[in-house]
Fold this sequence. Notes:
Strand content: 15-25%
Distance between the termini: 80 Å
Helix content: 25-40%
Largest sheet: 6 strands, antiparallel
Number of strands: 35
Number of helices: 16
Shape: globular
Amino acid sequence: MDMKIVLGTALLACLGCVSAHALDVLFDFENEADVAAWSLRNAAQDKLVQSTSFATSGRHSMFFSTPAWKEGMEQWPAFEAKPPMADWRAYDRLLIDITNTGEKRPFLSMFISDSKIPFREAFSYRFELPSCGFKRYVVPLTDMPEKVDRSGISIIHLFSQRPEDEVGLYLDNFTLLKPGEEPPPIPSSFARELAGLALAGLVEPTSALGKAAMELAAIADTPASKARLQAHMALLNSRISATRTALASEGLTVEDVDQLRSELEALLSSPDRLRSVLTFERDFDRTFPGGGPMLVGLATSMEKILPRDMPFSLNVTTKASLSLARNEKESLQIAVMPRKDGLKEVSVSVTDLKSEDGAVFPAEAIDCDVVGYVETKNRPPYTVPYVGWWPDPILDFLGPVDIAEGDLQTFWVRAKAGKDQTPGLYRGTLTVSAANAEPVTLDLELRVRNFTLPDQTPLPTAITFGERPAQMGGVENWPHMKLVWADFLADYYIDYDSLYRSGPPDWDVIQYLHNQGRLCAFNLGNVFNAGTTEEGFDKAIADTVARLRPAYEKAKELGLLDHAYIYGFDERPKEQFGLLERSAQALRKAFPEVLLMTTSYDHSYGLESEVKTIDAWCPLTPRFIPELAEDARAAGKYVWWYICCGPHNPYANWFVEYAAIESRLLMGAMTAKYRPDGFLYYLISIWNDNKPIESGPFTAWNPVSWTTYHGDGSLTCAGPGGKPVPTVRLENYRDGMEDYAYACILEEIIRQYKAREGILSPGERDWLKQAEEALVVPDSLVENMAKYSHDPAALYEYRERMADLIDRSGVPDADPWGEDFGVRGFRGR
């Protein structure tokens, strides 16, 4: 007997959702009324229909489809329904079954709310969709905010975001579960249908294997590599055949199908990895004849070289080169792989480097650190190419490491030029050593430029550090460790700060950084972060002013008001604008010299809203409109920008799985092109329950940070004793800031040239023309915020052209920042 209860909307209205068994089904789509209860945001574009495919409850599901997004189409395809049961207080979970028939994993998220709270401000949940597969989602209702009235749930809203390809999703079995209730079983008929989907997806990939084998045969030009290729392809075909047979067998469960599909994905991607390995081996043998057991190649600091499974590209050469200014750090990566058996105790070292005139760049100024790896175990709410081991922490405490057969290990080689380093071209050697292999030695060439980068960040920032004393060396050691972390952050052009702190800043740290000339900005305190209400407003703002007063007076006493700002009304909607303006007026009266900043959603930057007193507007990067920003600046405002869990690609961000160059472009070339007045980021240390990393290179550090994102709100890690550990993403953040500093220095020299334009020599006029051209970020590097190059060579070309012109300018150490560069940036000078 089918015990499933069909909950038609008319019947529910009469019976009050009384269930004949333990499970309370909201929608199972066995009748057309269940489908009709859902409405589309754009019915002309998208479709919702009843289907007999991929039903996990009964014989029907609901099919949602939306086309690939193009300019002018609905950006957020969505569908929503009022649930037939409003009172969810007795339930702790909501079950939803979803089958995705496409190869791509589109974005899908959900809001649930009552009738009083706008659904976008209520409970949210992001689905981690499979590729050509099924997933059962058990949504924890215990995570629902207290402000949502669970006795009066009135909307379930699902939405996608600019899908890159056509989306086809089958949804079924929206079921509420009480504590202790088990989800209903999935019928065997569904598992057979799911296996058919997996088999259908095999046709095109397996037909491409023959072509891949021919391409690989052209690379495998030695007997050993030919034998490796033949063995790999034979094993691959055998495993695919076995998997196909297994998928066609009887008695499969959904778990069986999922396991077989995961194995297939790994098998079908393996020829791409093999192509990389064979190419690496061939190029190494051509460059270093002799065929030793250790393969060595180079990569830039803007690339993520995955240790396993995924393809890679390396430069095999006898010479490594770096170029940097004084007071700058610049890096490259050395990649090492065993030819066959594993390697033992592998390390990278350098000699002192010397110039022709005898100057020395000391070996101790060059770090050769092990790159560590973190393991992602699930797909996040954004598109990623791979789930598995990703490079992220840079383990400067780890000594020589073993490298297993098949693994590719990278080392981070970072040169640090002091302020007094003599400019010139330095040469030495870099050696890769192993206990069971002959060393591989490369020439190392280092060019030090004749200009100097600033000590403090070249761009004002408002970034929350987020002290975690227990994970950063212990509460008892915090008076010392906080200064260790302050120095570390300053080395990466990040102020020791917090957007959300209600109390005063740590004045010991503030003065410590200011005495070093490395302080730019700090928050006096947060104001109504989640907004406020009309009721009791006058008292609330008066209490807030009183709370901030001691910090203001202390900053004034120390002469630091040019560095101080007040942040509040985090990402608040227009309904809060009236209260935002009243708060800003009170703060302006109380603290006239302090910059007032918000990320509230006024996309006119105060030009078209009632909010006139806020000084600095901070939109998300896709909402930064250069022309509008100039209008706001003409009105005396500042316009910063920020990222957080959004935006997703094609916009630049720095999740663990995103290209490393995106961090550098965002902070460098994009900033130089669009000139925001500052950069804001909400947190760099969401570590959850992670313990300090003490071993590696494959670490136990969990990259999950905010909700199910990887690395969002987390750019740092902790090492032994809580010591700071940088990440590949953080390195590229700083390198981008340094690129931006090049642009600022070149711009300052151009200004000095123009100040004496009437007396310039022909050579100087030619320099000025070239400099003005070089200052323009080329479209080939950054065309717009969503279209930019991932080629490190394009960035180096832009950067080195500026460096050459600064060197040739004849202006010694141009310094556009001067002393006490503060939160208002160059406009505050």
